[in-house]
Design goal:
14 helices; globular
Length: about 300
């Protein structure tokens, strides 16, 4: 299926044409999101957290995106329906459901379920675009998924039988399916500047949450205005939102959803590295084996097929 040409970034903006670096930055930013979301559970309600996250991200990006939005407004109007769907799936629904899920399950469970992300993307790619996984992509996904399981199970795969799945896990599966749809639909976005795209989707996604936010304010205790909660909001607005989505959207635009999806598996790798660096945990042999499998799988799955 022919695809629309991908615009190149200006020659001075080297990083914007490096998909693997961009997707690695995305994974690093998202590594802490499940942990932060779990820590926020019980302190900030899920809709409030999602609404404030995207409202803040929109305000952060708007000054940089304004001139691009003005220039791209005709292109956005031309595919307004697609842009609204992208805003709802990638911004409003996915993140709200993720935070809701983390009120009922452990971050470990969501990391395990997230390892199925590339398969979800592959299904949506087949259904919507008619794009099938190549043999290399399938093999890479299996390799990297095995690495994720080794890392999260501390080298003992038999521990999988001890994991109990619950309502939160079901909610996260729905969230993962929605984000897989977003990942594939980004390839149908209008050919507009990356800042225009994130500014519109952040703003529209936050706006779609307003009715639910108002309902939650009147039915749940509002969050305490304290240092911990404010730092949580600042983190989720800057890193897993603004920076990560800019990098993720550009990475998918450059190499496609199927080749970008295995980078989901790099998220727990970065999470483990962060726990070693910041929490003083000691590296174990199973972690190195898992890292090697994940990185090998991502390399195999994301490289360009030979013509």
């Amino acid at each position: 299926m022919p695809s629309e040409p991908v615009p190149s970034a200006p020659s001075g903006n080297w990083i914007a044409n490096q998909p693997y670096l961009l997707l690695s930055i995305t994974a690093m930013c998202w590594a802490g999101n499940a942990i932060v979301g779990r820590l926020a559970a019980g302190h900030i309600s899920p809709i409030t957290l999602s609404f404030l996250r995207w409202s803040m991200a929109f305000l952060i990006i708007l000054p940089f995106a304004w001139r691009h939005l003005v220039r791209d407004r005709a292109a956005i109007r031309g595919r307004l329906g697609t842009m609204i769907v992208l805003s709802i799936t990638g911004i409003s629904a996915f993140n709200t459901l993720q935070y809701w899920a983390l009120e009922h399950t452990q971050a470990l469970n969501t990391l395990l379920l997230q390892s199925a992300g590339p398969l979800v993307v592959a299904v949506w790619s087949l259904l919507l675009l008619g794009v099938r996984l190549t043999l290399a992509q399938a093999a890479g996904i299996v390799l990297s998924m095995a690495g994720v399981l080794i890392i999260l199970m501390h080298g003992d795969i038999t521990k999988l039988s001890n994991i109990e799945f619950n309502r939160g896990d079901l909610i996260f599966i729905v969230a993962l399916a929605i984000f897989g749809l977003y990942s594939v639909l980004t390839l149908k976005r209008p050919q507009i500047h990356g800042l225009s795209f994130v500014a519109f989707t952040f703003g529209a996604g936050a706006a779609c949450l307003i009715p639910l936010f108002v309902w939650e304010v009147f039915t749940h205790p509002f969050m305490a205005i304290d240092t911990a909660n404010l730092l949580t909001l600042l983190y989720v607005a800057l890193f897993p939102s603004t920076l990560a989505y800019l990098c993720f959207n550009r990475g998918v635009q450059l190499i496609g959803a199927n080749r970008a999806a295995p980078f989901f598996h790099v998220v727990p790798v970065f999470g483990t590295v962060m726990s070693i660096v910041f929490l003083g945990e000691h590296p174990q042999i199973f972690q190195f084996i898992g890292f090697a499998l994940v990185l090998t799988g991502v390399f195999v799955a994301s490289r360009k097929a030979s013509s």
